[in-house]
Amino acid sequence: DTGVSQDPRHKITKRGQNVTFRCDPISEHNRLYWYRQTLGQGPEFLTYFQNEAQLEKSRLLSDRFSAERPKGSFSTLEIQRTEQGDSAMYLCASSSDRLTYNSPLHFGNGTRLTVT
Amino acid sequence: KQEVTQIPAALSVPEGENLVLNCSFTDSAIYNLQWFRQDPGKGLTSLLLIQSSQREQTSGRLNASLDKSSGRSTLYIAASQPGDSATYLCAAPRGAGGTSYGKLTFGQGTILTVHP
């Protein structure tokens, strides 16, 4: 169990640019989640994958956001035409369905995005 | 819609004190509730997950209780240490049923400082 890995740790970009983040979940976990956290707030749910299927997207996820998990392993989150309001910590989490509803979520260390 | 509130927002205590962090949630139809720890600039570490059938869960100096009927959970930290300084977040599923699994609503957190 090497934990959830996210890359990069920090990303600074100019408004209007596209950015892509990567998440590698714990290897045996089939569920993967993306959350966003702004300063002083708790994380907010963005989207969720079961294996390679994206099963839900929050209303927070505008059309400029897209997430993929092509082979049911790692996932990418892309933000197109970034805006200053996108500045936040983007957190990835994974879990197993072995304990059905009671498997805890394991979070990565996040990607800190700053849009200038 | 699930709403989670944490009190107090911040807490500063001398080393060795026992302390209680409070969490309340509005939708009591939940399978479980999780407590997390977050160090500055880092991701979340799962501390305890209390299943709806349990009243409390213990790990070392940490004890978490869950009262679904009143919509409350508490995290008790015994004999606090400077290394316990962090933000503590509680999170409840966004609704009942399997579709809520892993989609958590977080409180804003309690910032704990334990000074020597």
Q: Give average pLDDT of chain A, whole number.
A: 92
Mean pLDDT of chain B: 92
Radius of gyration of chain B equals: 14 Å
Counted by DSSP, the helix tally of chain A is 0
Gyration radius over CA of chain A:
14 Å
Put simply, the count of helices of chain B is: 0
Helix/strand order of chain A, N-terminal first? EEEEEEEEEEE
* Largest sheet descriptor of chain B: 6 strands, mixed
Number of strands of chain B: 11
Distance between the termini of chain A: 36 Å
In terms of quaternary structure, the protein is heterodimer
Shape of chain B: globular
Can you give me a brief rundown of this structure?
The complex is a heterodimer of chains A (116) and B (116). Chain A has strands at 5-7, 10-13, 19-24, 31-37, 44-50, 53-57, 65-68, 75-79, 88-95, 106-107, 111-115.
Task: Describe the fold and architecture.
The complex is a heterodimer of chains A (116) and B (116). Chain A is an all-beta fold and 116 residues long. Helices cover 0% and strands 48% of the residues of chain A. Chain A has no helices and 11 strands. In chain A, the strands form 2 sheets. In chain A, strands 2, 4, 5, 6, 9, 10 and 11 form a 7-stranded mixed sheet that branches. Chain A starts with a strand and ends with a strand. The mean pLDDT of chain A is 92. With 116 residues, chain B is mainly beta. Chain B is 0% helix and 55% strand. Chain B contains no helices and 11 strands. The model of chain B has no long low-confidence stretch (mean pLDDT 92). In chain B, strands 2, 4, 5, 9, 10 and 11 form a 6-stranded mixed sheet that branches. In chain B, strands 1-3-8-7-6 form a 5-stranded antiparallel sheet, with no helix packed on it. The N and C termini of chain B lie far apart (41 Å). Classes of the chains: A mainly beta (116), B mainly beta (116). At the A-B interface, strand 5, strand 9 and strand 10 of A face strand 4, strand 5, strand 9 and strand 10 of B.
